Amino acid sequence: MRLPIFLLLALAAPAFGDAKRLELGYPNLAHRIQIVFPENYDPAKKWPLVLYYHGTDGTPDTKLIRHHTGEEGWFTAGMTYVQRGQFTFNTDTLNKELTILRSVRHHLVSKYNVDPKRTYVAGFSKGGWISGLLLQADPELAGAVILGAGHLHQIETKPYKFGRRTPVFIGVGRQDGNYPLALNAITFFRGLGATTTFDTWHDLEHNFPQGGSPALTQWFALEGNPTADHTAAANDWSTTRLTEIKAIPDPVNRWVALLDMQACPYHGFLDDSHKAAVAKARTDLEATAAVAIEAKALAAHRNLLRDELAERSKENYQKMLKAYLDLANSIPDSRQGDIARHDHYRIKTLLQHFDEQEKAQKENLEPSAPDKEDAPIDPNKQNNPNDDRQRIPLNPLVR
Q1: Could you tell me the pTM of the whole model?
Q2: How does pLDDT run across 257-271, given as a tens digit for each residue?
Q3: Is 342 left (phi over 0), alpha (psi -120 to 50) or beta?
Q4: Domains of the chain (ranges, CATH numbers)
Protein backbone atom coordinates (compact mmCIF):
# COMPACT_ATOMS: atom_id res chain seq x y z
CA MET A 1 0.00 0.00 0.00
CA ARG A 2 1.39 3.39 -1.03
CA LEU A 3 1.00 5.90 1.80
CA PRO A 4 0.24 9.57 1.15
CA ILE A 5 3.24 11.82 1.81
CA PHE A 6 3.23 15.49 2.69
CA LEU A 7 6.50 17.14 1.64
CA LEU A 8 8.31 20.18 2.99
CA LEU A 9 11.72 21.11 1.56
CA ALA A 10 13.84 23.27 3.85
CA LEU A 11 15.91 25.99 2.21
CA ALA A 12 18.66 26.10 4.82
CA ALA A 13 20.17 23.99 7.56
CA PRO A 14 21.80 26.42 10.02
CA ALA A 15 22.07 23.88 12.87
CA PHE A 16 24.46 21.50 11.14
CA GLY A 17 26.21 22.23 7.85
CA ASP A 18 24.73 23.45 4.58
CA ALA A 19 23.21 20.22 3.31
CA LYS A 20 19.76 20.28 1.74
CA ARG A 21 16.98 18.96 3.95
CA LEU A 22 13.62 17.39 3.28
CA GLU A 23 10.72 16.60 5.60
CA LEU A 24 8.31 13.76 4.90
CA GLY A 25 4.97 13.85 6.69
CA TYR A 26 2.64 10.86 7.05
CA PRO A 27 -0.94 10.98 8.38
CA ASN A 28 -0.26 8.35 11.08
CA LEU A 29 2.98 9.89 12.40
CA ALA A 30 3.11 12.55 15.11
CA HIS A 31 6.37 13.99 13.70
CA ARG A 32 7.76 14.50 10.21
CA ILE A 33 10.63 12.33 9.10
CA GLN A 34 13.82 14.36 8.65
CA ILE A 35 15.90 13.76 5.53
CA VAL A 36 19.38 15.25 5.10
CA PHE A 37 21.13 15.09 1.71
CA PRO A 38 24.90 14.58 1.45
CA GLU A 39 26.68 17.89 0.93
CA ASN A 40 28.30 16.48 -2.21
CA TYR A 41 24.98 15.29 -3.61
CA ASP A 42 24.99 14.60 -7.34
CA PRO A 43 21.66 13.38 -8.80
CA ALA A 44 23.54 11.35 -11.41
CA LYS A 45 25.13 9.12 -8.74
CA LYS A 46 23.58 6.45 -6.51
CA TRP A 47 23.75 7.09 -2.77
CA PRO A 48 23.62 4.95 0.36
CA LEU A 49 20.94 5.71 2.95
CA VAL A 50 20.78 5.11 6.70
CA LEU A 51 17.43 5.41 8.48
CA TYR A 52 17.99 6.29 12.15
CA TYR A 53 15.38 5.51 14.83
CA HIS A 54 15.41 7.50 18.07
CA GLY A 55 14.84 6.17 21.60
CA THR A 56 11.57 6.07 23.51
CA ASP A 57 9.75 9.42 23.58
CA GLY A 58 12.37 11.04 21.36
CA THR A 59 11.86 12.93 18.11
CA PRO A 60 13.32 12.42 14.61
CA ASP A 61 16.97 13.47 14.51
CA THR A 62 20.06 12.73 12.43
CA LYS A 63 22.84 14.41 14.43
CA LEU A 64 24.16 11.28 16.12
CA ILE A 65 24.31 9.26 12.94
CA ARG A 66 25.74 12.11 10.83
CA HIS A 67 28.49 12.56 13.41
CA HIS A 68 29.65 9.12 12.23
CA THR A 69 28.78 9.15 8.52
CA GLY A 70 30.15 12.66 7.98
CA GLU A 71 28.41 15.32 5.92
CA GLU A 72 29.32 13.75 2.59
CA GLY A 73 28.59 10.40 1.05
CA TRP A 74 25.35 9.45 2.82
CA PHE A 75 21.65 10.26 2.82
CA THR A 76 20.43 10.19 6.43
CA ALA A 77 16.84 9.93 7.63
CA GLY A 78 15.61 10.74 11.15
CA MET A 79 12.78 8.24 11.56
CA THR A 80 9.94 7.99 14.07
CA TYR A 81 7.25 5.48 15.01
CA VAL A 82 3.62 4.71 14.34
CA GLN A 83 3.46 3.24 17.85
CA ARG A 84 4.60 5.79 20.41
CA GLY A 85 6.13 5.00 23.79
CA GLN A 86 7.30 1.48 24.59
CA PHE A 87 7.34 -0.75 21.53
CA THR A 88 4.97 -3.73 21.65
CA PHE A 89 6.08 -6.31 19.14
CA ASN A 90 3.73 -8.44 17.10
CA THR A 91 3.17 -8.90 13.37
CA ASP A 92 0.77 -5.97 13.13
CA THR A 93 2.92 -3.40 14.96
CA LEU A 94 6.06 -4.41 13.09
CA ASN A 95 4.30 -4.27 9.72
CA LYS A 96 3.11 -0.72 10.42
CA GLU A 97 6.68 0.44 11.05
CA LEU A 98 7.89 -1.56 8.05
CA THR A 99 5.33 0.14 5.80
CA ILE A 100 6.68 3.59 6.74
CA LEU A 101 10.27 2.45 6.15
CA ARG A 102 9.45 1.10 2.70
CA SER A 103 7.54 4.23 1.77
CA VAL A 104 10.47 6.47 2.76
CA ARG A 105 12.92 4.27 0.89
CA HIS A 106 10.73 4.13 -2.24
CA HIS A 107 10.38 7.92 -2.28
CA LEU A 108 14.13 8.56 -1.94
CA VAL A 109 15.02 5.86 -4.46
CA SER A 110 12.58 7.13 -7.08
CA LYS A 111 13.15 10.87 -6.58
CA TYR A 112 16.77 11.27 -5.52
CA ASN A 113 18.62 8.19 -6.79
CA VAL A 114 19.20 6.54 -3.42
CA ASP A 115 20.61 3.06 -3.93
CA PRO A 116 17.96 0.50 -2.86
CA LYS A 117 20.68 -2.09 -2.29
CA ARG A 118 22.52 0.14 0.19
CA THR A 119 19.80 1.11 2.64
CA TYR A 120 20.63 0.54 6.31
CA VAL A 121 18.65 0.83 9.55
CA ALA A 122 20.12 2.16 12.79
CA GLY A 123 18.93 3.21 16.21
CA PHE A 124 19.66 3.62 19.89
CA SER A 125 17.68 1.89 22.69
CA LYS A 126 14.13 1.43 21.33
CA GLY A 127 15.58 2.34 17.94
CA GLY A 128 18.19 -0.39 18.29
CA TRP A 129 15.61 -3.03 19.12
CA ILE A 130 13.41 -2.12 16.17
CA SER A 131 16.41 -1.95 13.82
CA GLY A 132 17.13 -5.60 14.58
CA LEU A 133 13.48 -6.53 13.98
CA LEU A 134 13.30 -4.60 10.70
CA LEU A 135 16.49 -6.24 9.45
CA GLN A 136 14.89 -9.63 10.03
CA ALA A 137 11.65 -8.56 8.32
CA ASP A 138 12.95 -6.79 5.20
CA PRO A 139 15.39 -8.74 3.00
CA GLU A 140 16.06 -5.59 0.95
CA LEU A 141 17.91 -3.92 3.83
CA ALA A 142 21.68 -3.94 3.47
CA GLY A 143 22.56 -3.99 7.18
CA ALA A 144 21.86 -2.57 10.62
CA VAL A 145 23.37 -0.58 13.49
CA ILE A 146 22.03 -1.72 16.87
CA LEU A 147 23.02 0.66 19.69
CA GLY A 148 22.16 0.28 23.36
CA ALA A 149 20.06 -2.80 22.53
CA GLY A 150 20.40 -6.40 21.39
CA HIS A 151 18.35 -9.39 20.33
CA LEU A 152 15.20 -10.71 22.00
CA HIS A 153 12.67 -11.64 19.34
CA GLN A 154 13.00 -13.99 16.38
CA ILE A 155 10.13 -12.89 14.16
CA GLU A 156 9.84 -16.15 12.21
CA THR A 157 10.02 -19.76 13.37
CA LYS A 158 12.52 -20.36 10.58
CA PRO A 159 14.06 -16.98 9.77
CA TYR A 160 15.45 -16.47 6.29
CA LYS A 161 19.21 -16.51 5.82
CA PHE A 162 20.77 -13.34 4.47
CA GLY A 163 21.35 -13.88 0.78
CA ARG A 164 24.19 -11.38 0.48
CA ARG A 165 26.83 -9.81 2.68
CA THR A 166 24.94 -8.20 5.56
CA PRO A 167 26.97 -6.18 8.08
CA VAL A 168 25.58 -5.62 11.58
CA PHE A 169 27.18 -3.19 14.03
CA ILE A 170 26.34 -3.66 17.72
CA GLY A 171 27.40 -1.10 20.33
CA VAL A 172 26.49 -1.12 24.04
CA GLY A 173 27.64 0.09 27.44
CA ARG A 174 29.33 -2.62 29.52
CA GLN A 175 27.17 -1.67 32.50
CA ASP A 176 23.98 -1.47 30.45
CA GLY A 177 21.33 -4.04 31.37
CA ASN A 178 21.13 -4.78 27.66
CA TYR A 179 24.76 -5.95 27.49
CA PRO A 180 24.07 -9.72 27.59
CA LEU A 181 21.33 -9.37 24.97
CA ALA A 182 23.72 -7.34 22.81
CA LEU A 183 26.05 -10.36 22.96
CA ASN A 184 23.04 -12.48 22.06
CA ALA A 185 22.61 -10.37 18.92
CA ILE A 186 26.09 -11.40 17.75
CA THR A 187 25.18 -15.09 17.87
CA PHE A 188 21.73 -14.60 16.34
CA PHE A 189 22.73 -12.45 13.37
CA ARG A 190 25.87 -14.46 12.66
CA GLY A 191 23.59 -17.49 12.51
CA LEU A 192 21.68 -15.75 9.71
CA GLY A 193 24.91 -15.11 7.82
CA ALA A 194 25.67 -11.55 8.96
CA THR A 195 29.14 -10.10 9.51
CA THR A 196 29.12 -8.54 12.98
CA THR A 197 31.14 -5.79 14.65
CA PHE A 198 30.85 -5.44 18.43
CA ASP A 199 31.77 -2.21 20.22
CA THR A 200 31.89 -2.16 24.05
CA TRP A 201 31.56 1.22 25.77
CA HIS A 202 33.44 0.72 29.03
CA ASP A 203 32.06 2.30 32.23
CA LEU A 204 28.83 3.37 30.47
CA GLU A 205 25.32 2.31 31.40
CA HIS A 206 22.40 3.02 29.03
CA ASN A 207 24.14 5.92 27.28
CA PHE A 208 25.93 6.62 24.03
CA PRO A 209 29.57 7.80 24.29
CA GLN A 210 29.71 11.60 24.38
CA GLY A 211 32.56 11.76 21.89
CA GLY A 212 30.98 9.18 19.60
CA SER A 213 32.20 5.74 18.58
CA PRO A 214 35.40 5.59 16.47
CA ALA A 215 34.50 2.01 15.52
CA LEU A 216 31.14 3.15 14.15
CA THR A 217 32.80 5.93 12.15
CA GLN A 218 35.10 3.34 10.59
CA TRP A 219 32.14 1.04 9.90
CA PHE A 220 30.34 3.76 7.95
CA ALA A 221 33.52 4.67 6.08
CA LEU A 222 33.82 1.09 4.87
CA GLU A 223 30.13 0.68 4.03
CA GLY A 224 30.01 4.03 2.23
CA ASN A 225 32.98 3.09 0.01
CA PRO A 226 32.97 -0.71 -0.25
CA THR A 227 35.24 -0.90 -3.31
CA ALA A 228 37.89 1.56 -2.09
CA ASP A 229 41.30 0.56 -0.74
CA HIS A 230 41.17 1.45 2.97
CA THR A 231 44.63 0.13 3.85
CA ALA A 232 46.35 3.54 4.02
CA ALA A 233 43.64 5.05 6.22
CA ALA A 234 43.68 1.97 8.46
CA ASN A 235 47.48 2.03 8.79
CA ASP A 236 47.47 5.74 9.69
CA TRP A 237 44.81 5.10 12.31
CA SER A 238 46.81 2.20 13.73
CA THR A 239 50.00 4.24 14.04
CA THR A 240 48.21 7.08 15.82
CA ARG A 241 46.17 4.82 18.08
CA LEU A 242 49.16 2.71 19.15
CA THR A 243 51.00 5.88 20.14
CA GLU A 244 48.00 6.98 22.21
CA ILE A 245 47.71 3.57 23.88
CA LYS A 246 51.41 3.48 24.82
CA ALA A 247 50.84 6.71 26.76
CA ILE A 248 48.17 5.12 28.98
CA PRO A 249 49.82 4.68 32.42
CA ASP A 250 47.98 1.58 33.65
CA PRO A 251 49.00 -1.65 31.83
CA VAL A 252 45.56 -3.24 32.25
CA ASN A 253 43.90 -0.20 30.67
CA ARG A 254 46.45 -0.35 27.84
CA TRP A 255 45.57 -4.00 27.29
CA VAL A 256 41.82 -3.24 27.20
CA ALA A 257 42.45 -0.47 24.68
CA LEU A 258 44.34 -2.94 22.48
CA LEU A 259 41.45 -5.42 22.65
CA ASP A 260 39.12 -2.63 21.54
CA MET A 261 41.53 -1.74 18.76
CA GLN A 262 41.52 -5.29 17.42
CA ALA A 263 37.70 -5.23 17.40
CA CYS A 264 37.57 -2.07 15.24
CA PRO A 265 36.64 -2.45 11.54
CA TYR A 266 39.89 -0.84 10.34
CA HIS A 267 41.95 -3.55 12.06
CA GLY A 268 40.93 -6.01 9.36
CA PHE A 269 42.39 -3.70 6.69
CA LEU A 270 45.84 -3.25 8.26
CA ASP A 271 48.85 -4.48 6.35
CA ASP A 272 50.83 -7.32 7.92
CA SER A 273 53.38 -5.13 9.68
CA HIS A 274 50.80 -2.91 11.37
CA LYS A 275 48.69 -5.89 12.38
CA ALA A 276 51.77 -7.60 13.83
CA ALA A 277 52.63 -4.47 15.84
CA VAL A 278 49.19 -4.49 17.49
CA ALA A 279 49.43 -8.22 18.22
CA LYS A 280 52.92 -7.88 19.73
CA ALA A 281 51.85 -5.00 21.97
CA ARG A 282 49.01 -7.16 23.31
CA THR A 283 51.20 -10.27 23.72
CA ASP A 284 53.86 -8.31 25.60
CA LEU A 285 51.27 -7.00 28.06
CA GLU A 286 49.70 -10.41 28.59
CA ALA A 287 53.14 -11.70 29.62
CA THR A 288 53.03 -9.39 32.65
CA ALA A 289 51.53 -10.70 35.89
CA ALA A 290 48.82 -8.05 36.29
CA VAL A 291 47.49 -8.38 32.76
CA ALA A 292 47.79 -12.18 32.76
CA ILE A 293 45.39 -12.30 35.72
CA GLU A 294 42.93 -10.03 33.92
CA ALA A 295 43.14 -12.04 30.70
CA LYS A 296 42.42 -15.30 32.52
CA ALA A 297 39.51 -13.70 34.38
CA LEU A 298 38.09 -12.25 31.16
CA ALA A 299 38.03 -15.71 29.58
CA ALA A 300 36.20 -17.11 32.62
CA HIS A 301 33.80 -14.16 32.60
CA ARG A 302 32.92 -14.73 28.95
CA ASN A 303 32.05 -18.34 29.75
CA LEU A 304 29.70 -17.15 32.49
CA LEU A 305 27.98 -14.76 30.10
CA ARG A 306 27.42 -17.67 27.71
CA ASP A 307 25.92 -19.69 30.55
CA GLU A 308 23.63 -16.78 31.42
CA LEU A 309 22.39 -16.45 27.86
CA ALA A 310 21.76 -20.18 27.54
CA GLU A 311 18.64 -20.04 29.73
CA ARG A 312 16.57 -17.07 30.90
CA SER A 313 15.02 -18.63 33.99
CA LYS A 314 14.94 -17.98 37.73
CA GLU A 315 16.84 -21.19 38.40
CA ASN A 316 19.65 -20.29 36.01
CA TYR A 317 19.87 -16.73 37.34
CA GLN A 318 20.24 -18.11 40.89
CA LYS A 319 23.24 -20.11 39.67
CA MET A 320 24.67 -17.08 37.89
CA LEU A 321 24.25 -14.90 40.98
CA LYS A 322 26.70 -17.11 42.87
CA ALA A 323 28.98 -17.62 39.87
CA TYR A 324 29.51 -13.90 39.27
CA LEU A 325 30.12 -13.27 42.96
CA ASP A 326 32.62 -16.13 43.14
CA LEU A 327 34.51 -14.69 40.17
CA ALA A 328 34.54 -11.23 41.74
CA ASN A 329 35.82 -12.58 45.05
CA SER A 330 38.53 -14.61 43.31
CA ILE A 331 40.13 -11.49 41.85
CA PRO A 332 39.54 -8.65 44.35
CA ASP A 333 40.80 -5.16 43.55
CA SER A 334 40.87 -5.85 39.82
CA ARG A 335 39.12 -4.43 36.79
CA GLN A 336 37.46 -7.73 35.89
CA GLY A 337 36.45 -8.24 39.50
CA ASP A 338 34.61 -4.91 39.48
CA ILE A 339 32.79 -5.89 36.29
CA ALA A 340 31.83 -9.27 37.79
CA ARG A 341 30.42 -7.48 40.84
CA HIS A 342 28.33 -5.33 38.52
CA ASP A 343 26.99 -8.46 36.81
CA HIS A 344 26.24 -9.95 40.24
CA TYR A 345 24.16 -6.87 41.07
CA ARG A 346 22.42 -7.02 37.69
CA ILE A 347 21.41 -10.65 38.24
CA LYS A 348 20.28 -9.83 41.79
CA THR A 349 17.96 -7.19 40.37
CA LEU A 350 16.61 -9.67 37.82
CA LEU A 351 15.84 -12.17 40.57
CA GLN A 352 14.00 -9.50 42.55
CA HIS A 353 11.94 -8.87 39.43
CA PHE A 354 11.11 -12.57 39.18
CA ASP A 355 9.99 -12.59 42.82
CA GLU A 356 7.78 -9.54 42.25
CA GLN A 357 6.20 -11.18 39.20
CA GLU A 358 5.53 -14.41 41.10
CA LYS A 359 3.98 -12.50 43.99
CA ALA A 360 1.78 -10.50 41.60
CA GLN A 361 0.63 -13.68 39.87
CA LYS A 362 -0.32 -15.33 43.17
CA GLU A 363 -2.20 -12.26 44.35
CA ASN A 364 -4.08 -12.05 41.07
CA LEU A 365 -5.43 -15.56 41.58
CA GLU A 366 -7.43 -14.40 44.61
CA PRO A 367 -10.24 -13.64 44.64
CA SER A 368 -10.55 -13.47 40.83
CA ALA A 369 -8.39 -13.54 37.73
CA PRO A 370 -7.31 -10.16 36.36
CA ASP A 371 -8.53 -8.67 33.14
CA LYS A 372 -6.40 -9.72 30.19
CA GLU A 373 -5.05 -6.21 29.65
CA ASP A 374 -3.90 -5.97 33.29
CA ALA A 375 -2.37 -9.44 33.60
CA PRO A 376 1.30 -9.46 34.62
CA ILE A 377 3.90 -10.36 32.02
CA ASP A 378 5.54 -13.74 32.51
CA PRO A 379 9.29 -12.99 32.42
CA ASN A 380 9.98 -16.40 30.88
CA LYS A 381 7.46 -16.04 28.04
CA GLN A 382 7.69 -12.24 27.78
CA ASN A 383 3.94 -12.16 27.08
CA ASN A 384 0.67 -13.33 28.57
CA PRO A 385 -0.46 -16.70 27.15
CA ASN A 386 -3.66 -15.07 25.90
CA ASP A 387 -1.89 -12.06 24.43
CA ASP A 388 0.49 -12.43 21.48
CA ARG A 389 2.11 -9.02 22.01
CA GLN A 390 5.75 -9.29 22.99
CA ARG A 391 7.11 -6.35 24.88
CA ILE A 392 10.46 -4.71 25.11
CA PRO A 393 11.80 -4.53 27.80
CA LEU A 394 12.05 -8.06 29.18
CA ASN A 395 12.95 -6.76 32.64
CA PRO A 396 13.61 -3.45 34.43
CA LEU A 397 17.28 -3.46 33.41
CA VAL A 398 16.51 -3.77 29.70
CA ARG A 399 15.36 -0.61 27.94
Answers
A1: 0.88
A2: 999 999 999 999 999
A3: alpha
A4: 6-228 (3.40.50.1820), 236-287 (no CATH), 290-391 (no CATH)
